[in-house]
Automatic annotation (TrEMBL):
Designated name of the protein: GNAT family N-acetyltransferase
Short name of any one Pfam family annotated for the protein: Acetyltransf_1
GO molecular function, one term: acyltransferase activity, transferring groups other than amino-acyl groups
InterPro entries: Acyl_CoA_acyltransferase (IPR016181), Glycosyl_Hydrolase_84 (IPR051822), GNAT_dom (IPR000182)
CDD domains in UniProt: NAT_SF
Naturally occurring in which organism (per UniProt): Agromyces archimandritae
Domain N-acetyltransferase, residue spans: 69-212
């Protein structure tokens, strides 16, 4: 597979693969299948909206069947993206995840329903306030790789592809968020040149104006 693996731009029809990759890496890089009543919620927050709004900023790594096994996707303007998400994307899909009550009420909700309610709350809150990092680092990204695409440099190549596309647009910086328990991811991003933007390194930024 290594010889046939390649990086290419996103193309229509990749969406089911983006959904699968997102779900299978949603638990701090581990498989989150079955953690929600409808696993596709993960992708409808963290993957599919980006491919819908910015297909030209979405890149995938594919296997020997040209099926995506990893991706990077993002936006060049975090605040504009989040306003669009709140006004257009989320209202069009939110009916699939009806309100279940208080996400903290474990008496009436199963563990899966409670997790879903918390994620729906996150989605519903996107766009309600400006990102604290968007002035200096207006772009942001999400990157996920299935195990068969890991450890071969594809993560760096995906980020480089997105960074090059953002530089062409004159974007000065990009940021991302990492789970507090995902030490491997934090170390990976810092190795690539991302710098911590908060005390626990769960927010990291990359200066796109520095020559490589």
């Amino acid at each position: 597979m290594a010889d046939a693996t390649r990086l290419r731009p996103f193309q229509p029809g990749d969406e089911p693969f983006l959904t699968d990759i997102c779900v299978r890496t949603a638990a701090s890089g581990e498989d989150a299948t079955g953690q929600l009543p409808d696993d596709s919620l993960w992708a409808n927050i963290y993957a599919l909206p980006y491919a819908a709004r910015h297909p030209d900023l979405t890149f995938v790594v594919t296997d020997d069947r040209d099926e995506p096994i990893g991706y990077v996707l993002g936006t060049d303007d975090t605040d504009a993206f989040e306003r669009w998400f709140a006004a257009e994307y989320w209202p069009a899909v939110a009916h699939r995840w009806p309100e279940r009550g208080n996400a903290e009420d474990e008496v009436d909700l199963s563990a899966e329903q409670a997790k879903e309610a918390r994620l729906v709350g996150i989605a519903s809150g996107i766009g309600s306030h400006a990102s604290p990092h968007a002035t200096r680092y207006p772009a942001h990204l999400h990157i996920d790789l299935l195990p068969q695409a890991q450890g071969s440099g594809w993560g760096r190549k995906l980020i480089d592809a997105l960074a090059d596309a953002l530089r062409e647009r004159g974007v000065p910086g990009i940021h991302l968020g990492v789970g507090v328990n995902n030490a491997n991811a934090i170390a990976f991003y810092q190795h690539l040149g991302f710098v911590p933007l908060n005390d626990d390194s769960t927010a990291l930024g990359y200066d796109l104006t520095v020559a490589e």
